């Protein structure tokens, strides 16, 4: 009887507080409460952005309408689409982010491979310089670059971002080199040595053995690179100003562009610039990234876990 | 066969390996010289001059250290902005580190809907960009609604000593914004957690260690390397962020008639120095902590 009662209390205790194999009810509730609260922190701006963007001008002024607009209004998106010159800036943004990303991922993998697999004099110096290149703020190097581009007539051309990427100096290139360096160090080199004994050249070994074995690192680097290039506004503002225009660039001069299209004096009160239109513009700006993220998120997280990005 | 090449036969294996290695990194060395090293030297040269941009090129007028002394002693804004930057960074880094460590610990557990939460928690990696953050901040979507305007909180803030008031106020108004900088850090912690050998936890549990004890004795020490990486990464990201006030000030001065390229370059170097100093101090502090932790 005594033993039976103890067994029961044990079972109740483990139901609430968990045992070695289960978490227990209290822990589970706390865990989900925290996860939901933190998830809300990240989703709140997105929800806010989306709900505001579909409000009619009347809804915006109505204090009773907070989270549920009276109708699904797409007029803001039509305006934002025109103000952003969407098809045009979208294509530019894709060009400006995908091309340098492909180049910088490839070059970073070459450099990372060279550092991980070969012994040569000055390797530690090169590693230190790579780290330094990551730390140096862009504004310490950007003005001479800009003046040089101006002399060469490259200012405003996508080449001003493609050239540095081609030479391994793209945006945050250092991180990608270190990812590949770590990645290749952690892959055993038995296969490569066997191929070398069979007489394969260095480049052939790199392309046929090293590249396929480091595929997760390539995926991570490419995705991160696209995202960072897409969101970059400091370099694009300096190098591309007056030439091609990316989506974030157009977003940062949204007010001005809106007033060019809809001059404030001439339009009625409902067509004045309001936060619903601004939020539509912001949402259109991140929409391509959101689509990419939801399509690739499985790859994204799993590859990061496999590449050992930590770099110890 | 490579050995039949008469030019290569005399070269020792060691030298040949080195040459092939240089072959892989030569692109980077060229790029580093052209796009980082030479521009850095050039910017330093500008910082010692009054720079005037003309149609043909640029005119340099030697000033020695006048741009630097002007930034540090005459400019009413620059030093204040630098102090603000230091405070904000020092407040943000521990929050980002603790927060991303907690999230990574959660995501390392097994529970239902893990994939969904993981997807949500990595959203900031994709979305965090200057113009988007700026729009959201302007609409009040990034601060905990109304906290700083709450009369009780306002009273509390007024009661604080001056030196503490700014950091605490920044913390209250920007808490959510700070969390938006934690995406990559969560990934780094998560990758590091997955490398910890599960059998150590089992051994500790058999010896009677509670989950709390095994966190402090096993998990935290094994995250020390990732913590150093994350701290450095966070400082650099915050310092390079295009909405950072110091960067915006330097950028504005570049095109200013009274400032100009020379003055902006001098400020850029002072900022770089302050940032390196901060990085160095945080790095030393954390390596000392990591050493203590692993003993």
Structure notes:
The complex is a heterodimer of chains A (312) and B (295). By secondary structure, chain A is mainly alpha-helical. Chain A folds into two domains: 52 residues, no CATH class; 230 residues, MetI-like (MetI-like fold, Orthogonal Bundle). Chain A is built from 16 helices and no strands. In chain A, helix 6 crosses helix 9. The longest helix of chain A is centred in the last third of the chain and has 33 residues. The model of chain A has no long low-confidence stretch (mean pLDDT 81). Chain B is mostly helical. Chain B folds into two domains: 46 residues; 177 residues, MetI-like fold (Orthogonal Bundle). Chain B is 75% helix and 3% strand. Chain B has a two-stranded antiparallel sheet. Chain B is globular, with a radius of gyration of 25 Å. Chain B starts with 5 loop residues before the first helix and ends with a helix. The model of chain B has no long low-confidence stretch (mean pLDDT 80). At the A-B interface, helix 2, helix 5, helix 6, helix 7 and helix 8 of A face helix 2, helix 5, helix 6, helix 7 and helix 10 of B.
CATH topology of the largest domain in chain B: MetI-like fold
What's the SSE pattern of chain B?
HHEEHHHHHHHHHHHHH
Taking pLDDT < 50 over at least 5 consecutive residues as the criterion, the unreliable ranges of chain B are: none
Report Rg of chain A: 27 Å
How many separate helices of chain A?
16
Mean pLDDT of chain A: 81
Order of helices and strands of chain A: HHHHHHHHHHHHHHHH
Largest interface: A-B, 92 and 88 residues
- Strands of the widest sheet of chain B, in order across it, are 1-2
The 3D shape of chain A can be described as: flat
The portion of residues forming beta strands of chain A comes to: under 5%
How widely separated are the two ends of chain B? 54 Å
The CATH architecture of the largest domain in chain A comes to Orthogonal Bundle
Count the strands of chain B? 2
The share of residues in extended strands of chain B comes to: under 5%
CATH superfamily caption of the largest domain in chain B: MetI-like
CATH architecture type of the largest domain in chain B: Orthogonal Bundle
């Amino acid at each position: 009887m005594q033993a039976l009662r103890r067994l029961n209390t044990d079972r109740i205790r483990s139901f609430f507080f968990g045992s070695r194999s289960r978490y227990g009810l209290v822990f589970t509730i706390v865990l989900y409460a925290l996860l939901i609260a933190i998830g809300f922190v990240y989703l709140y701006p997105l929800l806010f952005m989306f709900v505001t963007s579909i409000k009619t001008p009347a809804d915006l002024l109505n204090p009773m309408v907070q989270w549920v607009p009276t109708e699904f209004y797409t007029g803001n998106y039509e305006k934002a689409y025109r103000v952003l010159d969407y098809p045009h800036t979208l294509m530019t943004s894709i060009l400006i982010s995908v091309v340098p990303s492909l180049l910088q991922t490839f070059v970073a993998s070459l450099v990372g491979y060279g550092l991980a697999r070969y012994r040569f004099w000055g390797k530690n110096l090169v590693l230190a310089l790579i780290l330094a290149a990551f730390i140096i703020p862009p504004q310490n190097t950007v003005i001479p670059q800009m003046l040089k581009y101006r002399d060469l007539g490259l200012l405003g051309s996508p080449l001003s971002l493609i050239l540095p990427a081609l030479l391994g100096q793209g945006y945050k290139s250092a991180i990608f080199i270190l990812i590949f360096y770590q990645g290749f160090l952690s892959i055993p080199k038995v296969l490569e040595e066997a191929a070398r004994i069979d007489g394969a050249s260095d480049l052939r070994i790199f392309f046929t053995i090293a590249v396929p074995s480091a595929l997760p690192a390539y995926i991570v680097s490419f995705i991160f690179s696209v995202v960072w290039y897409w969101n970059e506004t400091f370099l694009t503002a300096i190098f591309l100003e007056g030439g091609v225009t990316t989506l974030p660039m157009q977003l940062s001069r949204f007010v001005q562009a809106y007033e060019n299209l809809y001059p404030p004096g001439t339009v009625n009160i409902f067509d004045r610039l309001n936060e619903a239109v601004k939020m539509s513009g912001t949402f259109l700006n991140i929409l391509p990234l959101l689509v990419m993220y939801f399509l690739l998120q499985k790859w994204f997280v799993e590859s990061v876990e496999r590449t050992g990005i930590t770099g110890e | 066969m490579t050995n039949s090449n008469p030019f290569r036969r005399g070269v020792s294996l060691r030298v040949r390996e080195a040459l092939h290695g240089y072959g892989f990194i030569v692109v980077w060395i060229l790029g580093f010289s052209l796009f980082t090293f030479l521009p850095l030297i050039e910017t330093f040269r500008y910082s010692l001059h009054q720079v005037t941009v003309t149609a043909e090129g640029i005119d340099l007028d030697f000033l020695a250290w006048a741009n630097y002394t002007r930034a540090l002693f005459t400019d009413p804004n620059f030093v204040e902005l630098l102090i603000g930057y230091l405070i904000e960074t020092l407040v943000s880094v521990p929050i980002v580190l603790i927060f991303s460590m907690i999230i990574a610990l959660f995501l390392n557990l097994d529970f239902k809907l893990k994939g969904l939460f993981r997807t949500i928690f990595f959203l900031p990696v994709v979305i965090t960009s200057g113009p988007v953050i700026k729009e959201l901040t302007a609409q009040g979507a990034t601060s905990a609604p109304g906290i700083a305007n709450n009369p009780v909180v306002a009273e509390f803030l007024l009661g604080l000593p001056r030196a503490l008031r700014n950091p605490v106020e920044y913390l209250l108004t920007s808490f959510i914004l700070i969390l938006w900088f934690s995406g990559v850090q969560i990934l780094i912690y998560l990758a590091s957690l997955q490398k910890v050998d599960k059998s150590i936890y089992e051994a500790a549990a058999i010896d009677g260690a509670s989950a709390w004890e095994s966190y402090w004795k096993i998990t935290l020490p094994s995250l020390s390397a990732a913590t150093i990486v994350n701290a450095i990464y966070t400082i650099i990201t915050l310092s390079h962020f295009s909405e950072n006030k110091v960067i915006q000030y330097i950028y504005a001065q570049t095109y200013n008639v009274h400032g100009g390229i020379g003055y902006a370059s001098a400020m850029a170097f002072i900022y770089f120095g302050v940032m390196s100093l901060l990085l160095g101090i945080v790095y030393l502090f954390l390596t000392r902590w990591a050493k203590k932790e692993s003993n």
